[in-house]
Amino acid sequence: MYAYLILVGASARDPRFSFADPRTFEALDLQVRFRSDTTLILASPDTSVMGTLDDGVIIGHLFGEDGTPVSAPPTAADVERRIVSALWGEYVLVKSSTDGDRAKLTVTRDPSGGVACVYSLSDSTGFITSDVSLATRLGLYVSTIDWTSIAHCLAYPYVKASRTALAHVRELLPGCSIDALCGTSDTSTAWTPWAHIGSHERYRDPKEAAADVRQAVAKAVAAWARLDSGPILMELSGGLDSSVIAACLQPEAFRVIACTLVTPVPGADERHYAGLVAQHLGIELVEEDLRFDQAHYEFPVPRSSSAPRIGVLQHAADEIMLRAGERRGATSYFSGGGGDTVFGYLMNAAPAADAFKSSGVSAGLSAIRDLSQLHQCTFWKAARLTLRKLLYASTRTRVPDLSFLAERAAVPMEVHPWTQAPRGALPGDCDRVADLVGTQAFRDGLPRGGKAAVRMPLLSQPVVETCLRVPSWMWVAGGRNRAIARDAFAADLPAAAIQRRSKGNFMGYTGACYRRNQKGMRDFLLNGELAARGLLDTKALRQFMDRELAIRDQSFMRILTLCMIENWVRQKS
């Protein structure tokens, strides 16, 4: 969706990249969009770039509080100050300034992470880009795997970290800033979820919370939809999150085509609920088959990929959605991705613990009753789990997955800046923020984003900020998960979709794919780069993969993860 390359310091003055010879960049479909003594910004013709009034640039899209695009160039200082309040979107802000006699170049990435941003800086020179292959093709960087980072990926495969799997390349995490001319790679936090969670921010009235959540989601969906000129392909699973997005895509205002995937095994077949929602909203629903022969463990990864994030299922589903959209002329894809996290879908007793700590015994007991209904357990079991949650420290510790790994693969986890909870933070709030960090990896698993716009409105800043203000116990009111979102859109969706408790899953499909490809995956891993580097416990791996998979054994998911990382390594070696 966005393609840019920022040359910093000495790189910007390199005679090989002279402004007088635009042929240097034409092959990459890049144009010079900004130039100063210390900075050269290149971007593709269809990437939105807006100058600011004080020598800055905004790459991407920026909206006002009401969702209308910002067309007049604001001052960079104003954008930076208002990043946590009135302005939002998908953007990278590049701000030039001076600190005494020293030039400064501050780069800020928006909290949703909608515009990719990786960088390689040393001694105040280097590059910042949406796609590391642009730097590689210009001779600025030689692609080299960072094997310590690969070990980190093996132990924490879905943890978003500033370290990438490429040597000397880091990612500017969403909501963070970096001074690109300071000679170091130190970053700072420009936006944090904790600014919207404190007791002074919390909703007290569930009806007010539901109304504001509905308004925020509708605003974000409409803002993104208005940017797209052609048909919209709505990925409609029939679950609550995608149904909420579909409800905001008014057919009288936008041309919407809903698409749902159908697998040859039960579990993920969502046609019934997707059909109810599409019929209720008056939009077309198309069904696309997700066959076994479309799931591959070895496939090309995008040149822009800087870490292994695309698994077997993600690749297959992404390819099918891309082709479905291309056949129908879609210019954008809308997804409910991140909805479980944003709508407070916690599967533990933290909401009741939060209610006790924040609102007292009565609210705590009420939340325990809601949890017992939600999880269909006794009140006393829910109470016991709540007490345990109250006694434990509020910060959730992620445990590494060391299965099938050699001892040398064990590395400490990189700490994400958002997980640094303030004193007195509630257990549920810590869990919600940890889950929000996890959603930052979603976009990396959607390679079609390099060919068309992929919209995830539920990760937009106004939606996230509004939902963070909703106390965790309100999300489980009445024994319903995501209760506030259900109430917010009860008038817009069929009752069956609002009241639905089940969730579709692809476990049956992925399990069948594993069984069909078990021998090939075994050889792929045992004869691969990870094994050659001594990162895998090949004995344990061989023992597991030489036997038939037991019923209800989900250990095969770990094998699919290892294949994802092995495939990326082979593509980048």
From TrEMBL:
Stated name of the protein: asparagine synthase (glutamine-hydrolyzing)
Domain Asparagine synthetase: 213-570
Catalytic activity: L-aspartate + L-glutamine + ATP + H2O = L-asparagine + L-glutamate + AMP + diphosphate + H(+)
Lineage top rank: taxon: Bacteria
Classification via Gene3D superfamilies: HUPs
A Pfam family of this chain: Asn_synthase
Keyword list, A-Z: Ligase
Organism: Luteimonas terrae
GO molecular function, one term: asparagine synthase (glutamine-hydrolyzing) activity
Matching InterPro entries: Asn_synth_AEB, Asn_synthase, ASN_synthetase/amidase, Ntn_hydrolases_N, Rossmann-like_a/b/a_fold
Keyword field contains Ligase: yes
Family statement: Belongs to the asparagine synthetase family.
Broad enzyme group: ligase
EC numbers on record: 6.3.5.4
Pathways involved: Amino-acid biosynthesis; L-asparagine biosynthesis; L-asparagine from L-aspartate (L-Gln route): step 1/1
